[in-house]
Structures are given as structure tokens and as C-alpha cells.
Design goal:
Structural class of chain A: mainly alpha
Largest interface: A-B, 45 and 30 residues
Number of helices of chain A: 22
Structural class of chain B: mainly alpha
Order of helices and strands of chain B: HHH
Helix content of chain B: over 70%
Number of domains of chain B: 2
Order of helices and strands of chain A: HHHHHHHHHHHHHHHHHHHHHH
Shape of chain B: rod-shaped
Largest sheet of chain B: none
Shape of chain A: globular
Oligomer: heterodimer
Distance between the termini of chain B: 114 Å
Radius of gyration of chain B: 33 Å
Radius of gyration of chain A: 22 Å
Number of strands of chain A: 0
Number of strands of chain B: 0
Largest sheet of chain A: none
Number of domains of chain A: 1
């Protein structure tokens, strides 16, 4: 009889707590979004599964000695996984459109207003009972507005590791929701005539420009913002491997096998932070709400900046490409192209939108560096 | 309450400093692209790629099918035609 009782107490059924069941359902929700709705499946699938694993009673996946515990501390707490992913993203990024039309860097800069404006929202949420965000927490939450998953995870792991799970879920969910969140804002802020604007064809960019560009960006970051060099440095390394043309094997590994392997572990590691006590609270709701606000403000400020530039610049600029400044590569550029095509079926904005889109990646990395330098110390 | 006010002031300062820095950084990058990279592009334009007949047999056959005959073949044919015409003019 004793053995039977002992066996019963070692089962999951006897040890389940309500919070764990709810978090497993959250994990299943993420799996549903990944599999059925195709929302950022590469990350939401391992993240959702990680959420299920970490909430299994008795198994201790996230306790000392558990697999997820080591994955988290080896790769996310140290900041290694997001940086490796950033290298892969660099190896996949073509800066040609940006170099051909460098003015679009201003759109990438304007869209970062979403990050900094959200800081106020995060602080204001302290008026809500049960929520207490410090400036470090607020900065980690605000980076969701950069719409850049690795940057958000990197900054959250440095400034507010206890909020990492909610921040990562919010960041990737909103990135997946770009085609739903952005078009209404873009349409509300532009006229039909503005959306029809056709832009001048981009000039061809030479190989030497593409090789020197990442080196130039790195040197500038070293000089002006060393706190951003982990992100920008890895990004530039990946991009240089791609553009130099002499290490195709390394470039291919960085943008395929390495980024894929790291994505599996990153997803599992973030999922391990989705435990009931860390996720099921009012703060998570606040983070999800602030993420949406950050994203919307970023989109709006990018569009408004493009509108202003269109009025000043001698070459026409379609304001829709400003929305791509939030990064979320290449989804935001595709959305700009799609909304442009709805207004003018002969207007292909994709290449023009890729400029602000990759500028947004640089902009959010710089914004993260600024937050790290000013708040992280 | 004072603490909240203090945090709002800090957030405002952070926003101002952050946006100014992001614009300044990316602005300097624009200058870098318009000066250094633009000059490099003029000084070192991309080399025009000439298909190498020795290294790629496939491209050779492809170029033939497109009617894009290599200069060596053109020279050989012109030489042969010249000789043929010269011989025929001697016969007359």
C-alpha cells in the first residue's frame, strides 16, 4: 500500500498546481499560434514547448540540474544566443537598398520613438495596483517597440531577467501581428494620393560599398556607443561574411545551421521563463499592452517622418515605407509593399521599404545600446 | 508620488537623450555613406564579368545557343573567310 501511495505522489496528477496547468495551456496557445496560424513559428514553437516542459511538476526542467535551467543560463543569461542570432541576421541582410538611398536611415531612427515613448507608459503603469516597474524594467519593456526579437531578449536578459518571458512573448507575438497592427495606422496617417507615390529607381550598389559598410558601422559604434558593440559587432560580422564573398561556407552556416540550432535553444530557454509565478500576474498584462502601444507609436512616427521627408525632399518618398522603420525584417517591408499595391497596383515599394527596414535593425540596436549605457550601469 | 515624478523626469531625459543619439548616430552614417562609400564606388566600380571559356563548359555551350559567340571563335572564322576570299581572288 505504501508503494502505491508513493507511486501516486510521484505522478503528475498528484502534484499539479493550478498555475502550472494554466501555463501549460499558455504553452499550447503558443503552439497553436505557431502551427495553425503560422505566427513566428520558428520561435513560438520551441517557446511554447519550453513553456509546457518547464511547468511539468516533479520533473524539474528549470531547477538546478534540469535541462532548461542550463540552456537558459548558458545561452540567454550570458546573452550568447541572441548575439549568435544577430550574427545570422547580419549574414542574411542585404544593405544594398539602404546604401542606395541612405536618407531612409532617418526613417529607421524615427521609428525608435516607439521605444522611448513607451518608457512613459511603463512608468505610468505604476499607478495601477500590483504593478511596480523600475526604470530598468520600463527600458526592457519599451524595447519591444523596436520589433526586434534578439535585441529585446538581449536587453531584457541584462536589465530585467525576471520579465524576460513576458517580454519575449510580447515581442514575437507583435512581430507576427505586423500585417494586422500596421495597415490601419498607415492608412489613417496617409492620404490615398500619398500611398500612390512612385519612388525613383534605386542606383546599383558596388561590392566595395557593401564590404566597407559593416566595417564603417562597427567603427562608428566603437567610437560613439561601445555598449551597443555586442549587438552591432555580431551583426556586422555576419554581414561582412556575406558581402566579402570569400567565406561562403561560414556565411551559409551563420544564416542556416547555426541560427537554426540557436533558435531551438533560444525558444526553449525563453519558454523556461514562462513559469506560473513569473507570468501569471498583472505585470504581464501591462507588458502585453505596452508592447502594442510601443509598436503602434513606432509605426506612426516612421510614417510621419516619411511624410515630412516627402515634403522636403526633391525625390518623392512614399510615406508607407516609414512604417518599415520598426525593423521586423522583412515582414514590415512586405506590409508597406502590400498597402502600396492596394493604392496603386503598379507601385512596387518592397526594395524601397527594405532600406528603412534594415535601418530599423540598426536603430533598435543603437537604442538598446543607449538604454544599456544610461540605465544598465 | 515624488518618486513617480522623479521617474517621469528620468524617463523624459532618457527619451530626449535616446532620440537625439539615435538620430545623430544614423545621421553620421548617412554622411559616411554619401561621402566615403560614394567615393569608393566611383573609384572602384564593380568589374564587368567576362565569361571564362576555359573554366565553364556549360556557360560556353549556353552562350553559343544564345548566339553570343566568343571573340576567339569570331577571329578564327574571320581569318578563314579572309583566306578563302584571298584564294578565290587569286584564282580569278
Amino acid at each position: 500500500m505504501d508503494s502505491l501511495i508513493k507511486l501516486w505522489f510521484s505522478t503528475g496528477l498528484a502534484n499539479f498546481e493550478l498555475g502550472q496547468v494554466v501555463m501549460m495551456l499558455v504553452g499550447c496557445g503558443l503552439l497553436y499560434l505557431a502551427i495553425a496560424r503560422n505566427f513566428e513559428p520558428l520561435l513560438l514553437l520551441p517557446m511554447g514547448f519550453g513553456a509546457i516542459l518547464t511547468n511539468i511538476p516533479v520533473a524539474g526542467f528549470s531547477e538546478v540540474g534540469g535541462l532548461l535551467h542550463y540552456i537558459y543560463y548558458a545561452g540567454i543569461d550570458t546573452g550568447i544566443f541572441p548575439l549568435i542570432i544577430f550574427m545570422g541576421v547580419g549574414a542574411m541582410t542585404d544593405f544594398g537598398a539602404l546604401i542606395a538611398n541612405p536618407k531612409t536611415l532617418l526613417l529607421g531612427a524615427a521609428a525608435q520613438f516607439g521605444i522611448f515613448a513607451t518608457l512613459f507608459g511603463a512608468i505610468a503603469l505604476n499607478y495601477v495596483p500590483g504593478i511596480e516597474f523600475t526604470l530598468k524594467d520600463a527600458s526592457a519593456i519599451a524595447i519591444i517597440g523596436g520589433a526586434d526579437g534578439p535585441t529585446a531578449i538581449f536587453l531584457a536578459s541584462k536589465l530585467a531577467p525576471e520579465l524576460l518571458g513576458a517580454i519575449a512573448v510580447a515581442a514575437y507575438s507583435y512581430m507576427a501581428l505586423v500585417p494586422i497592427i500596421q495597415p490601419p495606422i498607415m492608412k489613417a496617417l496617409t492620404t490615398e494620393d500619398e500611398r500612390k507615390i512612385e519612388m525613383k529607381q534605386l542606383r546599383p550598389v558596388t561590392k566595395i560599398e557593401k564590404i566597407i559598410f559593416p566595417l564603417g558601422v562597427l567603427i562608428m559604434t566603437i567610437f560613439f556607443l561601445p555598449s551597443a558593440t555586442p549587438l552591432v559587432g555580431m551583426f556586422c560580422l555576419g554581414n561582412l561574411m556575406r558581402e566579402s564573398g570569400v567565406v561562403d561556407r561560414l556565411s551559409s552556416t551563420a544564416q542556416n545551421e547555426l541560427i537554426n540550432i540557436t533558435t531551438i535553444f533560444l525558444g526553449l530557454g525563453v519558454g523556461s521563463k514562462l513559469s506560473a509565478d513569473a507570468f501569471l500576474n498583472v505585470e504581464t498584462l501591462g507588458i502585453l499592452a505596452l508592447g502594442a502601444v510601443a509598436f503602434s507609436i513606432g509605426t506612426a512616427s516612421g510614417v510621419l517622418m516619411a511624410k515630412t521627408m516627402n515634403k522636403i525632399s526633391k525625390d518623392p518618398i512614399n510615406p508607407l515605407i516609414g512604417a518599415a522603420g520598426v525593423s521586423a525584417v522583412p515582414m514590415a517591408a512586405r506590409v508597406a509593399n502590400k498597402v502600396g499595391l492596394q493604392a496603386n497596383p503598379h507601385n512596387f515599394l518592397l526594395m524601397h521599404a527594405m532600406g528603412p527596414n534594415v535601418a530599423g535593425v540598426l536603430g533598435s540596436a543603437v537604442a538598446a545600446g543607449v538604454l544599456l549605457a544610461l540605465v544598465g550601469g | 508620488m515624488d518618486n513617480m515624478q522623479q521617474q517621469f523626469i528620468e524617463a523624459g531625459t532618457l527619451m530626449l537623450a535616446g532620440m537625439v543619439f539615435v538620430f545623430a548616430f544614423l545621421g553620421v552614417l548617412i554622411i559616411f555613406i554619401n561621402t566615403v562609400l560614394a567615393r569608393l564606388a566611383v573609384k572602384f566600380p564593380d568589374a564587368i564579368v567576362v565569361p571564362n571559356s576555359r573554366t565553364n563548359k556549360k556557360s560556353k555551350s549556353h552562350s553559343k545557343s544564345n548566339g553570343d559567340i566568343s571573340p576567339a571563335v569570331v577571329a578564327a572564322i574571320s581569318g578563314a573567310v579572309k583566306r578563302y576570299r584571298a584564294q578565290h581572288s587569286q584564282d580569278k
